[in-house]
Specification:
single chain; 297 residues; alpha/beta; Rossmann fold; Histone, subunit A; Helix Hairpins; 3 domains; 6-stranded parallel β-sheet; 13 helices; 9% strand
Protein backbone atom coordinates (compact mmCIF):
# COMPACT_ATOMS: atom_id res chain seq x y z
CA UNK A 1 0.00 0.00 0.00
CA UNK A 2 1.34 3.43 -0.94
CA UNK A 3 1.74 6.07 1.74
CA UNK A 4 1.81 9.60 0.37
CA UNK A 5 1.13 13.17 1.41
CA UNK A 6 1.87 16.56 -0.14
CA UNK A 7 3.10 19.82 1.37
CA UNK A 8 2.35 22.88 -0.76
CA UNK A 9 2.45 26.66 -0.48
CA UNK A 10 4.19 29.79 -1.64
CA UNK A 11 7.91 30.19 -2.07
CA UNK A 12 9.74 31.05 1.19
CA UNK A 13 6.88 29.70 3.32
CA UNK A 14 9.18 27.15 4.96
CA UNK A 15 7.96 24.03 3.12
CA UNK A 16 11.38 22.61 2.34
CA UNK A 17 12.71 22.94 5.88
CA UNK A 18 9.59 21.36 7.35
CA UNK A 19 9.62 18.50 4.85
CA UNK A 20 13.29 17.77 5.49
CA UNK A 21 12.70 17.76 9.23
CA UNK A 22 9.86 15.26 8.90
CA UNK A 23 11.66 12.94 6.49
CA UNK A 24 14.80 12.99 8.63
CA UNK A 25 12.93 12.23 11.85
CA UNK A 26 10.90 9.38 10.35
CA UNK A 27 13.59 7.64 8.34
CA UNK A 28 11.06 5.84 6.14
CA UNK A 29 10.00 8.83 4.03
CA UNK A 30 11.55 10.23 0.84
CA UNK A 31 10.85 13.60 -0.78
CA UNK A 32 9.52 14.02 -4.32
CA UNK A 33 10.06 17.64 -5.36
CA UNK A 34 7.32 19.48 -7.28
CA UNK A 35 9.30 22.36 -8.76
CA UNK A 36 9.77 23.50 -12.34
CA UNK A 37 13.31 24.85 -11.84
CA UNK A 38 15.15 22.41 -9.58
CA UNK A 39 15.19 20.05 -12.59
CA UNK A 40 18.09 22.12 -13.98
CA UNK A 41 21.62 21.08 -13.08
CA UNK A 42 23.71 23.99 -11.88
CA UNK A 43 20.73 26.19 -11.00
CA UNK A 44 21.15 25.63 -7.29
CA UNK A 45 21.25 28.86 -5.33
CA UNK A 46 18.12 30.82 -6.28
CA UNK A 47 16.06 27.65 -6.59
CA UNK A 48 16.83 26.93 -2.90
CA UNK A 49 17.77 23.43 -3.95
CA UNK A 50 18.60 21.01 -1.10
CA UNK A 51 22.30 21.11 -0.23
CA UNK A 52 24.64 18.17 -0.62
CA UNK A 53 24.53 17.55 3.12
CA UNK A 54 20.72 17.60 3.14
CA UNK A 55 20.61 15.16 0.24
CA UNK A 56 22.98 12.87 2.14
CA UNK A 57 20.52 12.83 5.05
CA UNK A 58 17.26 12.44 3.10
CA UNK A 59 16.53 10.95 -0.33
CA UNK A 60 15.24 13.56 -2.82
CA UNK A 61 13.73 12.79 -6.21
CA UNK A 62 13.31 14.78 -9.48
CA UNK A 63 16.30 17.07 -8.94
CA UNK A 64 19.00 17.81 -11.55
CA UNK A 65 17.27 16.01 -14.41
CA UNK A 66 18.50 18.11 -17.37
CA UNK A 67 21.01 20.75 -18.40
CA UNK A 68 19.88 24.40 -18.24
CA UNK A 69 20.44 24.63 -22.00
CA UNK A 70 17.48 22.27 -22.51
CA UNK A 71 13.74 22.93 -22.46
CA UNK A 72 11.59 20.89 -20.12
CA UNK A 73 7.97 19.77 -20.21
CA UNK A 74 5.41 18.58 -17.70
CA UNK A 75 4.87 15.12 -19.25
CA UNK A 76 8.36 13.68 -18.52
CA UNK A 77 8.19 15.18 -15.05
CA UNK A 78 4.94 13.34 -14.42
CA UNK A 79 6.49 10.10 -15.67
CA UNK A 80 9.50 10.59 -13.39
CA UNK A 81 7.28 11.25 -10.39
CA UNK A 82 5.28 8.10 -11.08
CA UNK A 83 8.45 6.02 -11.31
CA UNK A 84 9.78 7.52 -8.07
CA UNK A 85 6.53 6.81 -6.22
CA UNK A 86 6.51 3.21 -7.43
CA UNK A 87 10.12 2.73 -6.30
CA UNK A 88 9.33 4.15 -2.86
CA UNK A 89 6.32 1.88 -2.49
CA UNK A 90 8.48 -1.11 -3.42
CA UNK A 91 10.88 -0.17 -0.61
CA UNK A 92 8.03 0.33 1.84
CA UNK A 93 8.79 4.04 2.11
CA UNK A 94 6.32 6.91 2.21
CA UNK A 95 6.31 9.67 -0.40
CA UNK A 96 6.34 13.29 0.73
CA UNK A 97 5.58 15.55 -2.24
CA UNK A 98 6.84 19.10 -1.70
CA UNK A 99 6.67 22.18 -3.88
CA UNK A 100 5.19 25.42 -5.04
CA UNK A 101 4.76 24.83 -8.78
CA UNK A 102 1.00 24.49 -8.89
CA UNK A 103 0.72 22.97 -12.36
CA UNK A 104 3.21 20.23 -11.53
CA UNK A 105 1.37 19.51 -8.29
CA UNK A 106 -1.98 19.15 -10.07
CA UNK A 107 -0.64 16.98 -12.88
CA UNK A 108 1.24 14.65 -10.55
CA UNK A 109 -1.05 14.43 -7.53
CA UNK A 110 -4.22 14.06 -9.63
CA UNK A 111 -2.51 11.96 -12.34
CA UNK A 112 -3.99 14.11 -15.08
CA UNK A 113 -3.67 12.96 -18.65
CA UNK A 114 -1.46 15.41 -20.53
CA UNK A 115 -2.18 16.11 -24.21
CA UNK A 116 0.79 15.91 -26.56
CA UNK A 117 2.47 18.82 -28.34
CA UNK A 118 2.19 19.35 -32.09
CA UNK A 119 4.57 22.26 -32.84
CA UNK A 120 3.88 22.61 -36.56
CA UNK A 121 0.12 22.69 -36.09
CA UNK A 122 0.46 25.12 -33.17
CA UNK A 123 2.71 27.43 -35.21
CA UNK A 124 0.25 27.46 -38.11
CA UNK A 125 -2.70 28.22 -35.81
CA UNK A 126 -0.79 30.94 -33.96
CA UNK A 127 -0.02 32.64 -37.27
CA UNK A 128 -3.67 32.57 -38.33
CA UNK A 129 -5.48 33.34 -35.09
CA UNK A 130 -5.17 37.13 -35.23
CA UNK A 131 -6.97 37.41 -38.58
CA UNK A 132 -9.11 34.23 -38.51
CA UNK A 133 -10.11 33.98 -34.87
CA UNK A 134 -13.84 33.55 -35.47
CA UNK A 135 -13.33 30.94 -38.18
CA UNK A 136 -10.97 28.98 -35.95
CA UNK A 137 -13.39 29.16 -33.05
CA UNK A 138 -16.20 27.89 -35.25
CA UNK A 139 -13.98 25.03 -36.33
CA UNK A 140 -13.41 24.12 -32.69
CA UNK A 141 -17.17 24.26 -32.07
CA UNK A 142 -17.65 21.75 -34.89
CA UNK A 143 -14.83 19.44 -33.76
CA UNK A 144 -15.13 19.71 -29.97
CA UNK A 145 -18.18 21.65 -28.75
CA UNK A 146 -17.41 20.77 -25.11
CA UNK A 147 -13.96 22.40 -25.28
CA UNK A 148 -15.38 25.38 -27.15
CA UNK A 149 -17.95 25.93 -24.40
CA UNK A 150 -15.13 26.19 -21.85
CA UNK A 151 -13.16 28.81 -23.81
CA UNK A 152 -13.77 32.51 -24.31
CA UNK A 153 -13.63 33.14 -28.09
CA UNK A 154 -11.18 35.99 -27.46
CA UNK A 155 -8.70 33.78 -25.54
CA UNK A 156 -6.24 33.09 -28.36
CA UNK A 157 -3.87 30.96 -26.29
CA UNK A 158 -6.53 28.51 -25.14
CA UNK A 159 -8.19 28.43 -28.57
CA UNK A 160 -4.91 27.57 -30.29
CA UNK A 161 -4.06 24.90 -27.71
CA UNK A 162 -7.48 23.22 -27.95
CA UNK A 163 -7.31 23.09 -31.75
CA UNK A 164 -3.66 22.01 -31.72
CA UNK A 165 -4.48 18.97 -29.59
CA UNK A 166 -7.74 18.15 -31.36
CA UNK A 167 -6.15 18.27 -34.81
CA UNK A 168 -2.84 16.72 -33.80
CA UNK A 169 -4.11 13.83 -31.69
CA UNK A 170 -7.24 13.08 -33.63
CA UNK A 171 -9.35 13.18 -30.47
CA UNK A 172 -11.25 16.04 -28.80
CA UNK A 173 -9.26 18.25 -26.46
CA UNK A 174 -12.06 17.89 -23.90
CA UNK A 175 -11.56 14.10 -23.82
CA UNK A 176 -8.36 14.65 -21.81
CA UNK A 177 -10.37 15.74 -18.80
CA UNK A 178 -12.53 18.56 -17.41
CA UNK A 179 -9.62 20.99 -17.10
CA UNK A 180 -7.61 22.48 -14.26
CA UNK A 181 -10.61 24.37 -12.90
CA UNK A 182 -12.33 21.13 -11.84
CA UNK A 183 -11.18 19.31 -8.72
CA UNK A 184 -11.85 15.63 -8.20
CA UNK A 185 -11.73 13.44 -5.13
CA UNK A 186 -8.72 13.48 -2.82
CA UNK A 187 -6.08 11.11 -4.17
CA UNK A 188 -3.26 12.49 -2.03
CA UNK A 189 -3.87 14.57 1.10
CA UNK A 190 -2.46 18.07 0.55
CA UNK A 191 -1.28 20.15 3.49
CA UNK A 192 -0.86 23.86 2.82
CA UNK A 193 1.60 25.94 4.85
CA UNK A 194 0.30 29.49 5.16
CA UNK A 195 2.32 32.60 6.09
CA UNK A 196 1.03 36.18 6.41
CA UNK A 197 1.93 38.36 3.43
CA UNK A 198 4.01 40.86 5.42
CA UNK A 199 6.02 38.03 6.96
CA UNK A 200 6.33 36.31 3.60
CA UNK A 201 7.60 39.50 1.94
CA UNK A 202 10.24 39.91 4.65
CA UNK A 203 11.34 36.29 4.28
CA UNK A 204 11.62 36.63 0.51
CA UNK A 205 13.94 39.63 0.78
CA UNK A 206 16.09 38.10 3.51
CA UNK A 207 16.36 34.84 1.60
CA UNK A 208 17.33 36.51 -1.67
CA UNK A 209 20.10 38.42 0.05
CA UNK A 210 21.33 35.11 1.49
CA UNK A 211 21.38 33.83 -2.09
CA UNK A 212 23.82 36.63 -2.94
CA UNK A 213 26.05 35.67 -0.02
CA UNK A 214 25.90 32.05 -1.23
CA UNK A 215 27.32 33.02 -4.65
CA UNK A 216 24.27 33.64 -6.84
CA UNK A 217 25.99 36.20 -9.08
CA UNK A 218 28.88 33.82 -9.71
CA UNK A 219 26.45 30.98 -10.43
CA UNK A 220 24.53 33.10 -12.93
CA UNK A 221 27.79 34.10 -14.64
CA UNK A 222 28.71 30.42 -15.07
CA UNK A 223 25.26 29.61 -16.44
CA UNK A 224 25.37 32.54 -18.85
CA UNK A 225 28.71 31.40 -20.20
CA UNK A 226 27.33 27.90 -20.85
CA UNK A 227 24.09 29.12 -22.39
CA UNK A 228 20.54 28.92 -21.09
CA UNK A 229 17.30 27.72 -22.60
CA UNK A 230 14.39 30.13 -22.97
CA UNK A 231 12.64 28.61 -19.94
CA UNK A 232 15.74 28.69 -17.75
CA UNK A 233 16.45 32.33 -18.68
CA UNK A 234 12.97 33.34 -17.54
CA UNK A 235 13.35 31.89 -14.04
CA UNK A 236 12.61 34.50 -11.38
CA UNK A 237 15.83 35.48 -9.66
CA UNK A 238 18.00 34.34 -12.55
CA UNK A 239 16.41 36.57 -15.19
CA UNK A 240 17.08 39.69 -13.12
CA UNK A 241 20.67 38.83 -12.21
CA UNK A 242 21.36 38.01 -15.86
CA UNK A 243 20.68 41.70 -16.55
CA UNK A 244 23.60 42.53 -14.27
CA UNK A 245 25.91 39.82 -15.59
CA UNK A 246 25.21 40.28 -19.30
CA UNK A 247 24.29 43.97 -19.58
CA UNK A 248 25.97 45.61 -16.62
CA UNK A 249 22.77 46.81 -14.93
CA UNK A 250 23.44 47.94 -11.36
CA UNK A 251 23.39 44.90 -9.08
CA UNK A 252 21.19 46.42 -6.37
CA UNK A 253 18.65 47.47 -9.02
CA UNK A 254 18.55 43.88 -10.26
CA UNK A 255 18.27 42.52 -6.73
CA UNK A 256 15.34 44.78 -5.92
CA UNK A 257 13.62 43.71 -9.15
CA UNK A 258 14.17 40.04 -8.30
CA UNK A 259 12.72 40.51 -4.81
CA UNK A 260 9.66 42.31 -6.21
CA UNK A 261 9.05 39.62 -8.83
CA UNK A 262 9.49 36.85 -6.27
CA UNK A 263 6.84 38.50 -4.12
CA UNK A 264 4.49 38.61 -7.10
CA UNK A 265 5.28 34.96 -7.81
CA UNK A 266 4.38 34.05 -4.22
CA UNK A 267 0.99 35.70 -4.60
CA UNK A 268 0.32 33.84 -7.86
CA UNK A 269 1.21 30.59 -6.14
CA UNK A 270 -1.16 31.36 -3.28
CA UNK A 271 -4.00 32.19 -5.67
CA UNK A 272 -3.44 28.91 -7.50
CA UNK A 273 -3.47 26.77 -4.37
CA UNK A 274 -6.36 28.60 -2.73
CA UNK A 275 -8.59 27.64 -5.64
CA UNK A 276 -8.22 23.97 -4.66
CA UNK A 277 -10.82 23.25 -1.95
CA UNK A 278 -9.11 19.99 -1.01
CA UNK A 279 -6.00 21.59 0.50
CA UNK A 280 -5.89 21.62 4.30
CA UNK A 281 -4.30 24.92 5.41
CA UNK A 282 -2.19 25.44 8.52
CA UNK A 283 -0.69 28.64 9.93
CA UNK A 284 1.51 26.86 12.47
CA UNK A 285 4.34 24.71 11.11
CA UNK A 286 4.03 22.37 14.11
CA UNK A 287 0.36 21.72 13.30
CA UNK A 288 1.20 21.11 9.63
CA UNK A 289 3.98 18.75 10.68
CA UNK A 290 1.61 16.80 12.92
CA UNK A 291 -0.92 16.41 10.10
CA UNK A 292 1.75 15.27 7.63
CA UNK A 293 3.04 12.73 10.10
CA UNK A 294 -0.50 11.52 10.83
CA UNK A 295 -1.17 10.84 7.13
CA UNK A 296 2.13 9.01 6.69
CA UNK A 297 1.38 6.78 9.68
Amino acid sequence: MRRAVALVGATASGKSRLAHELALSRGDVEIIVLDALTVYRGMDVATAKPTASERAEVAYHLLDLIEPTEEFAVAPYQAGARQAAEALAARGHGALYVGGTGLYARVILDELEIPGRYPQIAADLAERVATQRQALFERLVALDPVAAARIEPSNDRRLVRALEVTLGSGRPFSSYGPGLGTYGHVRVVQVGLRVGLDELDARIEARFRRFLDAGLVEEVARLSARGLSRTARQAVGYREILEHVEHGVDLETCVEAAIAKTRRLARRQLRWFRRDPRIEWFDEPSAALERLDQVLR
